[in-house]
Amino acid sequence: MTLDELKTRAGEELGVSRWFTIDQPLIDAFAELTGDHQFIHTDPARAAQTPFGSTIAHGFLTLSMLSAMAQDAQPRLDPAGMGVNYGFDRIRFLAPVPSGARIRARFTLAEVRELPNRVVALAWDATVEAEGAARPVLAARWLLRRYTDVAA
User: Fold this and answer.
1) Whose CA is closest to 85, among 141, 4, 14?
2) Res 95: pLDDT
3) CA dist list (Å): 13 to 49, 51, 82
4) Domain encompassing residue 106
5) pLDDT for residue 63
6) What are φ and ψ of residue 53, in 5° steps?
7) Per-residue pLDDT tens for 3-26?
8) CB under 8 Å to 57, separation ≥6 — which residues?
9) How far is residue 44's CA from residue 99's CA, in Å, rounded to a whole number?
10) Which member of 5, 9, 17, 148 lies 3.0 to 4.6 Å from 72 by CB, making a disulfide possible if both were Cys?
11) Cβ–Cβ under 8 Å, residues 80 and 54
12) Is residue 50 part of a domain?
């Protein structure tokens, strides 16, 4: 998709990722990587005694999955370039993600702005849902910068 085509699509949902399983080995690996070993993430027996009823994914694990989900669902821009994470305007963890849940993201293009030096500012509204859940588990406004004069 060209930049001009992308600009005409602002406000539209442009992609839905496939389902990703958030199983206990993934949660444990994230805990090991981040040093966050709180029992609600890593101790199934203790977590079963909480209102969650099982271990749950770290919020930041769910957030970090946006990268994989975006690769899966967002349109590719032509010509190729380099994209970088610029940050978030908003992140809300709306519901827990139980171990074993499958999640996916919906991406709505919120804004496209051309900046100097062939840089494009993109804002995506990302909504992560868990299969069968009544409400989303995460909502975020994700900011990216795309450098169109850099080979991918």
Assistant:
1) 141
2) 97
3) 39, 34, 22
4) 3-21+57-147
5) 98
6) 80, -5
7) 888 889 999 999 999 999 999 999
8) 22, 26, 27, 30, 41, 96, 97, 98, 99, 101
9) 9
10) 17
11) no
12) no
Confidence (pLDDT) at 32? 98
In 10 A of CB 118, how many CB atoms? Answer: 13
Residue 113 lies in a domain: yes
pLDDT tens-digit map of 30-69:
999 999 999 999 999 999 999 999 999 999 999 999 999 9
Q: Which residue shows structure tokens 């509204």?
A: 125
* Mean pLDDT calculated for residue range 115-144: 96
Q: What does the alpha-carbon distance between residue 72 and residue 67 come to, in Å, rounded to a whole number?
A: 9
Largest CA distance in the chain: 55
Instruction: Decide if 7 is inside a domain.
Output: yes
CATH number at 93 reads 3.10.129.10
For the entire predicted model, the pTM comes to 0.91
**Number of domains the chain is built from:** 1
pLDDT at 152: 53
* C-alpha distances in Å from residue 149, one per residue of 12, 83, 117: 26, 11, 9
For residue 45, what are the contacts with CB-CB under 8 A and spacing of at least 6?
none
